[in-house]
Amino acid sequence: MSSNYNKDSLIRRLKRIEGQVRGLQKMLEEERRCADILTQLSAVKGALNKTAEEIMKGYTKSCILEYEETGNEKMLDELIQVLSKFREI
């Protein structure tokens, strides 16, 4: 993967998200209120989106820098494909 992002920061984010998901499982097991569960789901979704955004920023920078250095248009095509998929999330 690209070095245009902070790997340690992303790993910390993902571990936090992992804890949130475990919390959701516990909330369901305890039959907590739907409003509370949905609020937590929204927080997890937001955290995942922010993590994806950070990775996408690094990937985009990496692709552009490589294109500038090599002129390899395949990198730009790949970037466009990934951006299209990312938009669907």
From TrEMBL:
PANTHER family named in the record: TRANSCRIPTIONAL REPRESSOR FRMR-RELATED
Assigned keywords, A-Z: Coiled coil
UniProt record, GO biological process: negative regulation of DNA-templated transcription
Record's protein name: Copper-sensing transcriptional repressor
Residue ranges the record marks as coiled coil: 7-34
Keyword Coiled coil listed: yes
Pfam family membership, one: Trns_repr_metal
Record-annotated membrane-spanning stretches: none
GO molecular function: DNA binding; metal ion binding
CDD domains per UniProt: CsoR-like_DUF156 (cd10148)
Superkingdom, natural source: Bacteria
